[in-house]
Write a structure and sequence with these properties.
Length: 212
């Protein structure tokens, strides 16, 4: 799997990532009724590009990522941006459930396809969400494996049906999946565009005991 600790320091050097995060934040704001009282979790936050783009529209934002290197950079970005309502923590919800105060909204950008057990993660995110709270996930549309190197062990995007079943099993209802934006990557010397969906839902029922 990708070693994000090694990639952390130079992650934000590609301006396309910053632009993608800005567009993702706008897509979330257009689909979820953001409020300045909202407590928000960004899961798989990386260097915090999405969270920083959202922080001014919500009350409190917690960034969470399993890579200590990424979180170190995120903390630097938070300090540089002067965001008093934002913190960054190292954590992996597939290893340990969230133990703190629940959230009104959970967001994630391009992290889900790196997670081996998607059903488990969505269940843990649901458990960390208040009843009636929202989730907004942006990730890859189904692709043929070109987006990553041949040895990539994650998912090659997600179909609409797979997403709806996984969200429902995790206790989310009113699931909507739509095209949100594209992300570019060079493949065999050719610049390619890959579709990115936005899936939104609200927590309605307790997660099933064993959704996977």
């Amino acid at each position: 799997m990708t070693d994000f600790d090694e990639l952390a320091e130079g992650w934000d050097a590609d301006p396309r990532r910053t632009e993608r995060a800005r567009r993702a934040a706008d897509a979330i704001a257009g689909a979820v009724p953001l409020r300045d009282s909202m407590r928000v979790l960004e899961y798989g936050a990386g260097t915090g590009l999405l969270g920083i783009a959202l922080a001014g529209r919500v009350g409190e934002l917690v960034m969470l990522d399993s890579s200590a290197g990424m979180i170190d950079v995120a903390r630097t970005r938070i300090a540089e941006s002067g965001l008093s309502n934002t913190t960054a923590e190292v954590g992996d919800l597939t290893e340990h459930p969230w133990q703190g105060e629940p959230f009104d909204l959970v967001v994630s950008l391009m992290a889900l396809h790196h997670v081996p057990n998607v059903c488990l993660l969505l269940r843990r995110l649901s458990e960390a969400t208040r009843p009636g709270g929202w989730i907004a996930v942006l990730d890859l549309e189904p692709e043929g494996g070109e987006y990553h190197d041949p040895d990539f062990e994650g998912h090659h995007g997600f179909s609409r049906g797979t997403l709806r079943r996984a969200f429902a099993a995790a206790g989310y209802a009113h699931v909507t999946v739509r095209n949100a934006l594209t992300t570019d990557r060079e493949v065999d010397g050719i610049q390619r565009s890959f579709g990115v969906f936005l899936a939104t839902a609200q927590r309605e029922t307790p997660p099933r005991p064993d959704p996977c």
